[in-house]
Amino acid sequence: MRFDRFSQKQLLAMRWWALDDYRNCDALICDGAVRSGKTLSMSLGFVCWAMACFDGRSFAICGKTITSLERNLVRPLLQVLEDTGFSCVFSASRHYVDVKALGHTGRFYLFGGKDEGSAALIQGMTLCGVLFDETALMPRSFVEQALARCSVAGAKLWFNCNPSHPYHWFYREWILQAQEKRVLYLHFTMDDNPSLSESVKERYRRMYAGVFYDRFVLGKWTASEGLVYPMFRKGCHVVKRVPECRRYVISCDYGTVNPTSMGLWGECGGTWYRLREYYYDARREGLSRTDEEHYRGLETLAGDLKIDCVVVDPSAASFIACIASHKKFRVQKAKNDVLMGIRQVSDALQKNLLRIHEGCEDILREFTQYCWNESAVGDAPKKEHDHAMDDMRYFVSTVLCGKQGDAFAVLSVTRQSGGHPA
Q1: What does each C-alpha distance from 81 to 23, 38, 77, 88, 192 come to in angstroms?
Q2: 419, exposed or middle or buried, with CB in 10 Å at 0-12, 13-18, 19+?
Q3: d(Cα 298, Cα 407) in Å, to the nearest integer?
Q4: 75-84 vs 38-53: helix crossing angle, rounded to 10
Q5: Tens of pLDDT along 250-278?
Q6: Is residue 153 pLDDT above 60, yes or no?
Q7: For position 417, what pLDDT does the model report?
Q8: Cα dist. 282→212, 292, 294, 302 in Å?
Q9: pLDDT category, 411, cuts 50, 70, 90?
Protein backbone atom coordinates (compact mmCIF):
# COMPACT_ATOMS: atom_id res chain seq x y z
CA MET A 1 0.00 0.00 0.00
CA ARG A 2 1.49 3.34 -1.05
CA PHE A 3 0.73 6.90 0.04
CA ASP A 4 1.71 9.97 -1.93
CA ARG A 5 1.44 12.17 1.12
CA PHE A 6 -0.18 12.64 4.52
CA SER A 7 -2.02 15.74 5.68
CA GLN A 8 -0.63 17.78 8.55
CA LYS A 9 -3.35 16.47 10.86
CA GLN A 10 -2.63 12.85 9.92
CA LEU A 11 1.08 13.42 10.55
CA LEU A 12 0.29 14.90 13.96
CA ALA A 13 -1.84 11.85 14.82
CA MET A 14 1.18 9.68 13.99
CA ARG A 15 3.95 11.73 15.59
CA TRP A 16 2.44 13.67 18.53
CA TRP A 17 4.11 11.47 21.16
CA ALA A 18 7.57 12.42 19.83
CA LEU A 19 6.94 16.19 19.73
CA ASP A 20 7.99 18.42 22.62
CA ASP A 21 4.70 20.33 22.59
CA TYR A 22 2.73 17.18 23.42
CA ARG A 23 5.11 15.05 25.51
CA ASN A 24 3.02 15.71 28.62
CA CYS A 25 -0.19 14.44 26.98
CA ASP A 26 -1.47 11.11 28.29
CA ALA A 27 -3.86 10.40 25.44
CA LEU A 28 -4.89 11.17 21.88
CA ILE A 29 -8.49 11.45 20.67
CA CYS A 30 -9.25 11.54 16.94
CA ASP A 31 -12.89 11.98 15.96
CA GLY A 32 -14.80 13.35 12.99
CA ALA A 33 -16.07 12.42 9.57
CA VAL A 34 -15.94 9.01 7.91
CA ARG A 35 -13.10 8.38 5.46
CA SER A 36 -11.05 11.20 6.96
CA GLY A 37 -7.92 9.09 7.38
CA LYS A 38 -7.93 9.18 11.17
CA THR A 39 -7.97 5.40 11.74
CA LEU A 40 -4.93 4.41 9.69
CA SER A 41 -2.77 7.37 10.69
CA MET A 42 -3.58 6.90 14.36
CA SER A 43 -3.04 3.13 14.38
CA LEU A 44 0.26 3.52 12.52
CA GLY A 45 1.35 6.08 15.09
CA PHE A 46 0.30 3.76 17.92
CA VAL A 47 2.54 0.91 16.73
CA CYS A 48 5.48 3.26 16.01
CA TRP A 49 5.18 4.74 19.52
CA ALA A 50 5.01 1.30 21.10
CA MET A 51 8.09 0.06 19.25
CA ALA A 52 10.09 3.21 19.95
CA CYS A 53 9.28 3.49 23.66
CA PHE A 54 9.03 -0.13 24.87
CA ASP A 55 10.59 -3.53 24.30
CA GLY A 56 9.04 -6.92 24.96
CA ARG A 57 5.82 -5.44 26.37
CA SER A 58 2.11 -5.91 25.72
CA PHE A 59 -0.49 -3.59 24.22
CA ALA A 60 -4.16 -3.83 23.23
CA ILE A 61 -6.13 -2.81 20.16
CA CYS A 62 -9.87 -2.81 20.78
CA GLY A 63 -12.88 -2.61 18.45
CA LYS A 64 -16.61 -3.23 18.58
CA THR A 65 -16.02 -6.84 17.52
CA ILE A 66 -12.93 -8.87 16.68
CA THR A 67 -14.24 -9.39 13.14
CA SER A 68 -14.76 -5.69 12.41
CA LEU A 69 -11.46 -4.81 14.09
CA GLU A 70 -9.48 -7.24 11.95
CA ARG A 71 -11.23 -6.15 8.76
CA ASN A 72 -11.25 -2.39 9.26
CA LEU A 73 -8.01 -1.77 11.14
CA VAL A 74 -5.65 -4.71 11.64
CA ARG A 75 -5.27 -6.07 8.11
CA PRO A 76 -4.82 -2.64 6.44
CA LEU A 77 -2.39 -1.67 9.20
CA LEU A 78 -0.33 -4.84 8.82
CA GLN A 79 0.03 -4.22 5.09
CA VAL A 80 1.40 -0.74 5.72
CA LEU A 81 3.72 -1.92 8.50
CA GLU A 82 5.17 -4.73 6.40
CA ASP A 83 5.65 -2.42 3.41
CA THR A 84 7.52 -0.07 5.74
CA GLY A 85 9.89 -2.79 6.98
CA PHE A 86 8.21 -3.96 10.19
CA SER A 87 8.13 -7.71 10.86
CA CYS A 88 4.59 -8.79 11.79
CA VAL A 89 3.23 -12.22 12.73
CA PHE A 90 -0.57 -12.29 12.99
CA SER A 91 -2.13 -15.11 15.01
CA ALA A 92 -5.76 -14.88 13.90
CA SER A 93 -6.86 -17.81 16.06
CA ARG A 94 -5.32 -16.36 19.24
CA HIS A 95 -6.13 -12.75 18.38
CA TYR A 96 -2.76 -11.09 18.69
CA VAL A 97 -0.03 -9.64 16.49
CA ASP A 98 3.69 -9.88 17.27
CA VAL A 99 5.70 -6.97 15.86
CA LYS A 100 9.46 -6.49 15.53
CA ALA A 101 10.97 -3.13 14.61
CA LEU A 102 13.76 -0.80 15.66
CA GLY A 103 15.40 -3.68 17.51
CA HIS A 104 12.33 -4.00 19.75
CA THR A 105 9.45 -6.46 19.99
CA GLY A 106 5.88 -6.03 21.13
CA ARG A 107 2.69 -8.06 21.32
CA PHE A 108 -0.62 -6.42 20.40
CA TYR A 109 -3.68 -8.24 21.72
CA LEU A 110 -7.01 -7.78 19.92
CA PHE A 111 -10.26 -7.41 21.85
CA GLY A 112 -13.91 -6.92 20.94
CA GLY A 113 -15.95 -4.69 23.23
CA LYS A 114 -19.44 -5.48 22.03
CA ASP A 115 -21.34 -5.59 25.36
CA GLU A 116 -21.04 -5.19 29.12
CA GLY A 117 -19.68 -8.73 29.53
CA SER A 118 -16.69 -7.91 27.34
CA ALA A 119 -14.93 -6.17 30.22
CA ALA A 120 -14.05 -9.57 31.69
CA LEU A 121 -12.00 -10.43 28.58
CA ILE A 122 -9.35 -7.84 29.31
CA GLN A 123 -9.45 -7.97 33.09
CA GLY A 124 -6.17 -8.85 34.84
CA MET A 125 -3.81 -7.86 32.02
CA THR A 126 -0.93 -5.40 32.31
CA LEU A 127 -0.59 -3.13 29.30
CA CYS A 128 1.65 -0.29 28.19
CA GLY A 129 -1.00 1.25 25.99
CA VAL A 130 -4.36 0.67 24.37
CA LEU A 131 -5.96 1.86 21.14
CA PHE A 132 -9.75 2.00 20.88
CA ASP A 133 -11.26 1.96 17.39
CA GLU A 134 -14.86 3.27 17.28
CA THR A 135 -14.85 4.09 20.99
CA ALA A 136 -18.39 5.49 20.94
CA LEU A 137 -19.75 2.04 19.99
CA MET A 138 -18.23 0.28 23.01
CA PRO A 139 -19.77 -0.02 26.47
CA ARG A 140 -18.26 2.24 29.08
CA SER A 141 -17.42 -0.69 31.38
CA PHE A 142 -15.21 -2.26 28.72
CA VAL A 143 -13.36 0.99 27.96
CA GLU A 144 -12.76 1.75 31.62
CA GLN A 145 -11.55 -1.79 32.34
CA ALA A 146 -9.06 -1.50 29.49
CA LEU A 147 -7.87 1.88 30.77
CA ALA A 148 -7.29 0.36 34.20
CA ARG A 149 -4.91 -2.19 32.63
CA CYS A 150 -2.49 0.58 31.53
CA SER A 151 -0.48 0.79 34.75
CA VAL A 152 3.02 0.84 33.25
CA ALA A 153 5.00 4.08 33.51
CA GLY A 154 4.79 5.98 30.22
CA ALA A 155 1.58 4.27 29.11
CA LYS A 156 -0.62 6.26 26.74
CA LEU A 157 -4.21 5.98 25.52
CA TRP A 158 -5.43 6.29 21.94
CA PHE A 159 -9.09 6.87 21.06
CA ASN A 160 -10.67 6.93 17.60
CA CYS A 161 -14.38 7.35 16.86
CA ASN A 162 -17.08 8.77 14.65
CA PRO A 163 -19.43 11.16 16.53
CA SER A 164 -22.62 10.06 18.25
CA HIS A 165 -25.12 12.12 20.24
CA PRO A 166 -23.90 14.97 22.50
CA TYR A 167 -25.06 13.16 25.66
CA HIS A 168 -22.72 10.24 25.04
CA TRP A 169 -20.51 9.55 28.05
CA PHE A 170 -17.31 9.61 25.98
CA TYR A 171 -18.09 13.03 24.50
CA ARG A 172 -19.03 14.53 27.86
CA GLU A 173 -16.27 13.01 29.97
CA TRP A 174 -13.36 12.87 27.55
CA ILE A 175 -13.77 15.26 24.63
CA LEU A 176 -15.29 18.09 26.66
CA GLN A 177 -12.69 17.52 29.38
CA ALA A 178 -9.71 16.95 27.09
CA GLN A 179 -7.61 19.71 28.60
CA GLU A 180 -8.17 18.57 32.19
CA LYS A 181 -7.32 14.98 31.25
CA ARG A 182 -4.18 16.06 29.35
CA VAL A 183 -5.54 14.80 26.04
CA LEU A 184 -4.56 15.94 22.55
CA TYR A 185 -7.88 16.24 20.70
CA LEU A 186 -7.85 16.21 16.89
CA HIS A 187 -11.06 16.69 14.90
CA PHE A 188 -10.95 15.31 11.35
CA THR A 189 -12.94 16.10 8.22
CA MET A 190 -12.74 14.42 4.83
CA ASP A 191 -10.54 17.31 3.70
CA ASP A 192 -7.88 16.01 6.11
CA ASN A 193 -7.48 12.92 3.94
CA PRO A 194 -5.50 13.90 0.81
CA SER A 195 -6.07 10.47 -0.76
CA LEU A 196 -9.79 11.27 -1.30
CA SER A 197 -10.69 12.89 -4.59
CA GLU A 198 -13.39 15.56 -4.75
CA SER A 199 -15.69 13.14 -6.59
CA VAL A 200 -15.35 10.56 -3.81
CA LYS A 201 -16.03 13.18 -1.14
CA GLU A 202 -19.10 14.31 -3.03
CA ARG A 203 -20.32 10.72 -3.23
CA TYR A 204 -20.08 10.41 0.55
CA ARG A 205 -21.98 13.67 0.96
CA ARG A 206 -24.80 12.19 -1.13
CA MET A 207 -24.88 8.98 0.91
CA TYR A 208 -26.19 10.49 4.15
CA ALA A 209 -28.99 12.79 5.26
CA GLY A 210 -30.33 14.22 8.51
CA VAL A 211 -28.51 13.34 11.71
CA PHE A 212 -26.27 10.85 9.88
CA TYR A 213 -25.05 13.59 7.52
CA ASP A 214 -24.23 15.81 10.48
CA ARG A 215 -22.25 13.06 12.16
CA PHE A 216 -20.58 11.11 9.38
CA VAL A 217 -19.95 13.93 6.87
CA LEU A 218 -19.69 17.04 9.05
CA GLY A 219 -18.28 15.12 12.00
CA LYS A 220 -20.55 16.76 14.59
CA TRP A 221 -21.72 15.34 17.92
CA THR A 222 -25.28 16.39 17.20
CA ALA A 223 -28.63 15.50 18.73
CA SER A 224 -31.22 13.64 16.70
CA GLU A 225 -34.37 15.66 16.05
CA GLY A 226 -37.27 15.91 13.65
CA LEU A 227 -38.28 13.15 11.25
CA VAL A 228 -36.28 9.93 11.43
CA TYR A 229 -36.21 9.66 7.62
CA PRO A 230 -36.04 13.22 6.25
CA MET A 231 -34.51 11.85 3.04
CA PHE A 232 -37.80 10.13 2.10
CA ARG A 233 -39.44 11.93 -0.82
CA LYS A 234 -42.71 10.93 -2.43
CA GLY A 235 -41.53 12.12 -5.82
CA CYS A 236 -38.52 9.82 -5.60
CA HIS A 237 -39.57 6.84 -3.51
CA VAL A 238 -43.29 6.38 -4.30
CA VAL A 239 -44.33 4.66 -7.53
CA LYS A 240 -47.66 4.05 -9.25
CA ARG A 241 -46.53 0.93 -11.08
CA VAL A 242 -43.95 -1.71 -10.21
CA PRO A 243 -41.93 -3.85 -12.60
CA GLU A 244 -42.06 -7.62 -12.66
CA CYS A 245 -40.09 -8.87 -9.67
CA ARG A 246 -37.93 -11.97 -9.52
CA ARG A 247 -38.15 -12.76 -5.80
CA TYR A 248 -40.30 -11.83 -2.82
CA VAL A 249 -39.98 -11.39 0.94
CA ILE A 250 -42.52 -10.50 3.61
CA SER A 251 -41.57 -8.55 6.73
CA CYS A 252 -43.67 -8.44 9.89
CA ASP A 253 -43.91 -6.31 13.03
CA TYR A 254 -46.27 -8.23 15.31
CA GLY A 255 -48.57 -6.72 17.89
CA THR A 256 -51.47 -7.85 20.03
CA VAL A 257 -52.78 -4.55 21.40
CA ASN A 258 -50.46 -2.53 19.16
CA PRO A 259 -50.88 -2.76 15.37
CA THR A 260 -49.53 -5.68 13.37
CA SER A 261 -47.86 -4.54 10.16
CA MET A 262 -46.66 -6.74 7.29
CA GLY A 263 -45.13 -5.69 4.01
CA LEU A 264 -44.68 -7.66 0.78
CA TRP A 265 -41.37 -6.76 -0.90
CA GLY A 266 -40.35 -7.66 -4.44
CA GLU A 267 -36.89 -7.24 -5.96
CA CYS A 268 -36.11 -6.12 -9.49
CA GLY A 269 -32.68 -5.03 -10.68
CA GLY A 270 -31.33 -4.51 -7.17
CA THR A 271 -34.23 -2.30 -6.07
CA TRP A 272 -36.83 -3.58 -3.62
CA TYR A 273 -40.47 -2.51 -3.97
CA ARG A 274 -43.08 -2.61 -1.22
CA LEU A 275 -45.89 -4.00 -3.33
CA ARG A 276 -48.70 -4.20 -0.80
CA GLU A 277 -49.20 -4.41 2.95
CA TYR A 278 -51.30 -5.78 5.79
CA TYR A 279 -51.94 -3.42 8.71
CA TYR A 280 -54.30 -4.25 11.56
CA ASP A 281 -54.78 -1.85 14.50
CA ALA A 282 -56.64 -3.64 17.31
CA ARG A 283 -57.27 -0.41 19.23
CA ARG A 284 -58.77 1.30 16.20
CA GLU A 285 -60.88 -1.71 15.27
CA GLY A 286 -61.89 -2.45 18.87
CA LEU A 287 -61.11 -6.16 18.46
CA SER A 288 -57.90 -8.14 18.77
CA ARG A 289 -56.97 -10.86 16.28
CA THR A 290 -55.49 -14.23 17.08
CA ASP A 291 -52.25 -15.57 15.62
CA GLU A 292 -54.28 -17.71 13.22
CA GLU A 293 -56.23 -14.69 12.02
CA HIS A 294 -52.99 -12.79 11.41
CA TYR A 295 -51.64 -15.85 9.61
CA ARG A 296 -54.61 -15.80 7.24
CA GLY A 297 -53.76 -12.15 6.58
CA LEU A 298 -50.20 -13.25 5.80
CA GLU A 299 -51.43 -15.83 3.30
CA THR A 300 -53.69 -13.26 1.63
CA LEU A 301 -50.77 -10.83 1.42
CA ALA A 302 -48.56 -13.46 -0.23
CA GLY A 303 -51.26 -14.61 -2.66
CA ASP A 304 -49.88 -17.05 -5.23
CA LEU A 305 -46.32 -15.66 -5.06
CA LYS A 306 -43.37 -17.81 -4.03
CA ILE A 307 -42.06 -16.16 -0.86
CA ASP A 308 -38.37 -16.61 -0.06
CA CYS A 309 -38.90 -16.02 3.65
CA VAL A 310 -41.02 -14.18 6.19
CA VAL A 311 -38.88 -11.91 8.38
CA VAL A 312 -40.55 -11.54 11.78
CA ASP A 313 -39.99 -9.47 14.90
CA PRO A 314 -37.80 -11.83 16.99
CA SER A 315 -39.92 -11.27 20.13
CA ALA A 316 -43.07 -12.59 18.41
CA ALA A 317 -42.50 -16.19 19.50
CA SER A 318 -46.12 -17.32 19.25
CA PHE A 319 -46.60 -15.93 15.74
CA ILE A 320 -43.30 -17.42 14.58
CA ALA A 321 -44.46 -20.79 15.90
CA CYS A 322 -47.83 -20.33 14.18
CA ILE A 323 -46.22 -19.65 10.79
CA ALA A 324 -43.84 -22.58 11.17
CA SER A 325 -46.67 -24.95 12.11
CA HIS A 326 -48.34 -24.38 8.74
CA LYS A 327 -45.13 -25.42 6.92
CA LYS A 328 -45.78 -23.08 4.02
CA PHE A 329 -43.34 -20.21 4.65
CA ARG A 330 -39.75 -20.18 5.85
CA VAL A 331 -39.47 -17.94 8.91
CA GLN A 332 -36.42 -15.80 9.66
CA LYS A 333 -36.05 -13.91 12.92
CA ALA A 334 -35.29 -10.28 12.20
CA LYS A 335 -32.17 -8.43 13.30
CA ASN A 336 -33.34 -5.87 15.82
CA ASP A 337 -30.62 -3.31 16.51
CA VAL A 338 -32.84 -0.22 16.28
CA LEU A 339 -30.25 2.50 15.68
CA MET A 340 -28.18 0.41 13.28
CA GLY A 341 -31.37 -0.53 11.45
CA ILE A 342 -32.46 3.10 11.15
CA ARG A 343 -29.08 3.98 9.69
CA GLN A 344 -29.35 1.10 7.21
CA VAL A 345 -32.84 2.17 6.11
CA SER A 346 -31.52 5.72 5.71
CA ASP A 347 -28.70 4.42 3.53
CA ALA A 348 -31.14 2.38 1.43
CA LEU A 349 -33.38 5.40 0.87
CA GLN A 350 -30.39 7.61 0.01
CA LYS A 351 -29.18 5.05 -2.51
CA ASN A 352 -32.68 4.61 -3.98
CA LEU A 353 -32.77 0.91 -3.15
CA LEU A 354 -36.32 1.11 -1.74
CA ARG A 355 -39.55 2.05 -3.51
CA ILE A 356 -43.07 2.13 -2.07
CA HIS A 357 -46.21 1.50 -4.13
CA GLU A 358 -48.69 4.32 -3.72
CA GLY A 359 -51.30 1.86 -2.45
CA CYS A 360 -49.31 1.17 0.74
CA GLU A 361 -51.04 3.94 2.65
CA ASP A 362 -50.00 2.97 6.18
CA ILE A 363 -46.26 3.02 5.62
CA LEU A 364 -46.60 6.28 3.66
CA ARG A 365 -48.51 7.81 6.58
CA GLU A 366 -45.90 6.67 9.10
CA PHE A 367 -43.03 8.15 7.07
CA THR A 368 -44.55 11.59 7.79
CA GLN A 369 -45.09 10.88 11.52
CA TYR A 370 -42.10 8.82 12.66
CA CYS A 371 -39.92 11.21 14.71
CA TRP A 372 -36.94 11.23 17.02
CA ASN A 373 -37.72 11.54 20.72
CA GLU A 374 -36.06 14.88 21.45
CA SER A 375 -36.62 14.52 25.21
CA ALA A 376 -34.63 11.28 25.37
CA VAL A 377 -31.03 11.25 26.54
CA GLY A 378 -29.38 9.82 23.46
CA ASP A 379 -30.82 8.55 20.20
CA ALA A 380 -34.28 7.05 20.37
CA PRO A 381 -37.31 7.31 18.07
CA LYS A 382 -40.70 7.91 19.60
CA LYS A 383 -42.60 4.69 20.19
CA GLU A 384 -45.54 5.75 18.06
CA HIS A 385 -46.36 5.58 14.35
CA ASP A 386 -43.60 2.99 14.12
CA HIS A 387 -45.17 -0.33 13.15
CA ALA A 388 -44.76 -0.21 9.38
CA MET A 389 -41.45 1.57 10.08
CA ASP A 390 -40.37 -1.42 12.19
CA ASP A 391 -41.38 -4.04 9.64
CA MET A 392 -39.47 -2.09 6.98
CA ARG A 393 -36.43 -1.87 9.29
CA TYR A 394 -36.56 -5.64 9.91
CA PHE A 395 -36.60 -6.22 6.17
CA VAL A 396 -33.68 -3.90 5.45
CA SER A 397 -31.52 -5.10 8.37
CA THR A 398 -32.11 -8.78 7.72
CA VAL A 399 -32.47 -9.09 3.94
CA LEU A 400 -31.09 -5.98 2.28
CA CYS A 401 -28.29 -5.19 4.68
CA GLY A 402 -24.74 -6.12 3.84
CA LYS A 403 -21.81 -6.18 6.22
CA GLN A 404 -21.21 -3.82 9.12
CA GLY A 405 -19.79 -0.35 8.61
CA ASP A 406 -20.30 2.04 5.73
CA ALA A 407 -20.48 -0.64 3.05
CA PHE A 408 -23.98 -1.46 1.87
CA ALA A 409 -24.78 -4.38 -0.38
CA VAL A 410 -27.84 -6.18 -1.68
CA LEU A 411 -27.66 -9.75 -0.50
CA SER A 412 -29.52 -12.62 -2.08
CA VAL A 413 -32.00 -14.44 0.09
CA THR A 414 -31.57 -18.16 -0.49
CA ARG A 415 -34.75 -19.78 -1.69
CA GLN A 416 -35.74 -22.79 0.32
CA SER A 417 -38.66 -25.13 0.00
CA GLY A 418 -40.51 -26.34 3.02
CA GLY A 419 -41.33 -24.46 6.21
CA HIS A 420 -38.64 -24.49 8.86
CA PRO A 421 -37.94 -21.66 11.24
CA ALA A 422 -34.49 -20.14 10.75
Answers
A1: 24, 16, 6, 8, 21
A2: middle
A3: 32
A4: 50
A5: 999 999 889 999 999 999 999 999 999 99
A6: yes
A7: 30
A8: 34, 15, 11, 22
A9: very low
**C-alpha to C-alpha distance for 404 and 387, rounded to whole angstroms:** 25
Per-residue model confidence (pLDDT) at position 251: 98
Distance CA 65, CA 24 (A): 32
Q: What pLDDT shows up at residue 49?
A: 97
| Stretch 223-246: mean pLDDT | 94
Contact between 253 and 241 under an 8 Å Cβ cutoff? The reply is no
Confidence of residue 418 (pLDDT cuts 50, 70, 90): very low
- Cut 0.70: pTM above it: yes
Can you give the three-state secondary structure of the chain, one letter per residue?
CCCCCCCHHHHHHHHHHHCHHHCCCCEEEEEECCCCCHHHHHHHHHHHHHHHHCCCEEEEEEECCHHHHHHHHHHHHHHHHHHHCCEEEEECCCCEEEEEECCEEEEEEEEECCCHHHHHHHCCCCCCEEEEECHHHCCHHHHHHHHHCCCCCCCEEEEEECCCCCCCHHHHHHHCCCCCCCEEEEEECHHHCCCCCHHHHHHHHHHCCCHHHHHHCCCCCCCCCCECCCCCCHHHHEECCCCCCCEEEEEEECCCCCCEEEEEEEEECCEEEEEEEEEECHHHHCCCCCHHHHHHHHHHHHCCCCEEEEEECCCCHHHHHHHHHHCCCCEEECCCCHHHHHHHHHHHHHCCCEEEECCCHHHHHHHCCCEECCCCCCCCECCCCCHHHHHHHHHHHHHHCCCCCCCCCCCCCCCCCCCCCC
Q: What is the pLDDT of residue 102?
A: 85
Contacts of 414 (CB under 8 A, 6+ apart): 308
